[in-house]
Amino acid sequence: MKVYPIEENCISCRYCEVACTMVHSASKDPVKAYKLEGLLPRATVEVKGAVSLSLMCRHCKHPFCFDSCISGAIQVGEDGKVYLDEERCVGCWNCVLVCPFGAAHPFISDNEKKRHSFKCDLCGDRGFPACVEACPNRALVYDFER
Amino acid sequence: MLFKKPQVAFYPFMVLRDDYKCVRCKSCVDQCSFDATYYDEDLNMIMNHHENCVNCKRCEAFCPTDAIKVVKNPSTFHPDANWTPEAIRDIHVQMLTGAIILTSTGNDKPIRNYFDHLLLDACQVTNPPIDPLREPMELKTFIGRKTDALEFDPDGVSIKTTIGKQLELEIPVLFSAMSYGSINLNLQKAMARAAKEFGTYWNTGEGGLHRDLREYKECTIVQVASGRFGVDLEYLETSAAIEIKIGQGAKPGIGGHLPGEKVNEGIAQTRMIPVGSDAISPAPHHDIYSIEDLRQLIYALKEATNYEKPVFVKIAAVHNVAAIACGIAHAGADAVVIDGVRGGTGATPKSLRDHVGIPIELAIAAVDDRLRKEGLRNQVSLIAAGGFRSAVDVLKAVALGADAVYIGTVAKLAAGCTQCQQCHTGRCAWGITTNDPRLAKRLNPDIVAENLYNLLRAWAHDIKELLGAMGINAIESIRGNRLRLRSWGLTEQENKILGVLPAGM
Amino acid sequence: MGYVIVGNSAAAVGCITGIRKVDKETPITVISYEDFCYSKPMIGDILDGAPREHLTYRDKSFFEKNRVQQILGHRAISINPESKVVVLDSNEIVPYSKLLIATGARPFIPPIQGVEKEGVFTFTELSEAERFNSYLTEKGAQEVVVVGSGFIGLEVAYFLAKRGLKVSVVELLERSLARAVDERTSRIVESLLREVGVKFLFNESVSEILGEEKVSSVKLKSGKILKADGVVIAVGVRPNVELAQTAKVKVNKGIEVSTKMETSVNDIYAAGDCIECIDIVDNTKKSIPLFPLAFEQGFIAGLNMAGRGVDYLGGLVLNSLKFLPVPVLNAGLASPPDSSYEVLVNDKFEERGFYRKVVLKEGRLVGFVAVGEIDRVGILTNLIRQKIDVSSIKERLVELDFGLVDLPKWWREEKLKEDRTAYKDWRAVK
After folding, report:
1. What is the pTM of this model?
2. Which CATH architecture has domain C3-106+238-305?
3. Which one of B434, B445, C326, C416 is at 20 to 30 Å from C129 when CA atoms are compared?
């Protein structure tokens, strides 16, 4: 299962981005997530003219990020999902460099103490991807592989 | 304001932002289609051009942290009952542009809404009410020419008389004419789908029928307006009924107007006009200069479609609407559609929208009365349009004499419309009255079709409750039944025109 | 008889992963002279105080779960391809049905007089790094000379300077990272390193290492003398091909392999720093000793060894400078060799903290450098890999918001809607 973007329906309202940031925060509050915790979304809304879509980790059949991870922080589960352990990640940025979708994002905290990558984790703890739930125009679908 | 005329500073609306709650997600920047919101990279702040804000409230609705409120500019002109801010601003606009002021939606002036002065009856002890959850309630409505008398077979049971083609509605509500061009094709798709699912009809308006909608033939009413856009034999065939549009309530006496900015490939193809050209329908049909000409057109259309489709005639409700309606009945139409002063439109000169036409409530009563007096009431169905807001408005309209009601603005509201009166610009931020690809996708036909179906379902239930309360189990029994209405706060003359008694009597 | 892998780093782990995707049963044996499976690119962290465990790349449970027997602390001496065995330094014979040579590369040590003195280290192996670290502490070292300004040399210099040592970097060419990035990027990196106290000497080389048994100073080509309590040689690596040559495997710039990662000898495969591979940017064969390539090559070798025929897509240069506060990423060719290449630049480093440059040839991206803002540059890397024609969007390539919406719709439909993300789906497009 993964999240599929439907670019025909995306209206670039960015609810997916805000919902993602909010559910991955400690406070579960959108304002605090951005302002106090300094978090960023794992989904990226791209806009060009009339075309827009929300992009997140595709959990590829051949994940180049997994190949390039020097610390073993990225692993592929039995379910085919690609997991990134943020604690184990050392911030080498190889995954950022090789992901064809730009789905692995770098995070450097303000004091530069924390450096690691992050990406869509299909909201494992939550049970259902927040971005899909938040989308007001049915532009994100949580579906089995087509 | 710098480099602008001083009058621009008197803009009517402002965007207020709680900057702390603003997380710079830029949703509002993307959503605004009127150049009123932008992101400043250097300041890392979202900023506004308040003078461009039209109060469409798209940004307010979409801000994920509820940080935005779009409000009236608290800075006002000196209070003056005659020189209202609107009157002053209209002068400014005309002096700066030299152009007629165009606007859209329906009349926003406080012309008396008679529905708000009408009250329905209810049954109590001697004539008990009916419980709609336990007894069947019939809302089914047939639109079309009815017979003068019934002729029976010798057995006294079978009916010899045949009846012309009827439209069968599950609820006395249809979706009003809104042309492809004035509105997003997606809204037409949503209305068609909801109409098909629920069991009613939708109207193409004067913009032709897009090929994607041909599958909804069984519930489509096609319109033949003065510009004859998209009218060919195939168009007439792909319908359940044909409506000749003489006029509409929002702008009686002039034809439809689609500004060139809104005419893209799809619209050009459907209307059979060049891309980017203004689509202006002439004020009269240039082949209808008398009632006989109208009769000729009605029968030409019937002939062309093998008498299989009912033909309606739509007029605006003006001073002598009752007389015109009788003429239309004599001309052979199967239904008369009257559109009141509060009807909506995608583009019209403001003066015509606000100052021409009469309220639909009075028109329904007048037309119903006159048709009955002339013995014509069974020959035409009466459909009313123009600003119906709720199920109870619908029921009151039926009580005043209408067979069914067209809803237009309600469909737009179900798609998110906030009545900001900018439909004519083609920049509708809700994607309702535009076909600009970037904006049109904001109206998801699946979602809006569901909304419209829900709306009709809610209204049907509401009407059933009201009928049940009145001890009535079929809509037919309330049709033209003015005795079940009472008025309050109206003059004797108004009561007389409406044919209702004042409450208390 | 099963699979045997000589090596225990990226290529080896990739191979185990590849084999087990197809064949879950047949045992695998790993032979390594090192004592645990660690991440070579993370060695620098030792200088930053990290414990050895921090460098674990795959732990014991990985090998157990994948039914891999590890023979650690022993070196493979020779291979007999006729009898299909590997001979170890302990005289143990290890038979194989399919063999992977993943012997990696060793540091190149230039013939400098005095280079064998105590206190001269290289920096490609954990044990060497740990010894260097202890040596500095025991000696109370204050000044260190680093020879070479590549990724390894600069990382060592940075961490030592942060610890308070005086560090001088001696570089043969006129700028640092000369082979990897362009001049502007070199200068940015150098200024950041100078901020923590690192000194650079360009167009220089070490002609002699001076001192008794232990190094005390170095003499440069120009005649200058630098005090040195320790010296690190970081001027590149050479593929370890000796073991392969015992099996008469064909060797060129590294071990030669087919697109299925097989060598010239049947059933012997090779992957990682020890091989030569095609550089898809200019279609020439090179040794590209980089971590992401090693794993991928090992993985493909593993699939092929287990019977699933998969063609390797080819390699490209991928570099990441991670230890600075300002990240630097590069893929492909950063400095074009002649004017037949087109270069576009977006230089806002002073005002906004980022710099981006792309290199194009005949409308296709062949390389880029991103400094500061690096989010989503993987999209550019893939454009190099798939050789997509970007002539109509080339100005967009250097913008921070360049994204998949800039690519043609068919690409998004294929990759997103149809979910084509298998290895072969990333071939160059026709």
Report:
1. 0.90
2. 3-Layer(bba) Sandwich (3.50)
3. C326
